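>> received
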Amino acid sequence: MRNFIRSVRPVLGFLSRLALYLAAAGIVAMTLIVGWQVFGRYVLNDTPSWSEPLSLFLMSWFILLGAAVGVRESGHLGLDIVRYAMPKPVQRAMDITSLILVAAFGGFMSYYGVLLARGTWTATIPVLGWPGGVDFIPLIVGGAMIALFALERLCDALLAEPEPVAPAAQGVESV
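>> returned
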């Protein structure tokens, strides 16, 4: 199992970097589109109708790709005060439980995204002319990446050697 994790880690690292760069490009593209929308509305007095749905679509992509990278890099907020107050074995159990829940959440997100895309594919987004199911592709991809990166971290947590429990203070003499 360790060899398998070591062999796929470079691929997952590349996937994570790619997702991060795509998310950054999406933020820049959305900013330009919204800037054009404001310019069109207030300077040209002609708001482009495509700008809002396209910027929302890009926002879905960069939010979900960024969330997946955050799972891989352990960059999300957490209530660590409770975790650090526990003994090391309990901390490890909390980490493993949390990663299982995150992986399941990402898997369900992806699965139900497929169902939503399939159910809305025949509808058309009026302004863009795209099938309605396209709106759920970021949910499918982002959910799958969240699950994949959580499973990578879960394997790391399961394969890590448990830290030995520190013995009670030695050399303390009782009076």
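>> Residues 4 and 155 are 10 Å apart (CA to CA).
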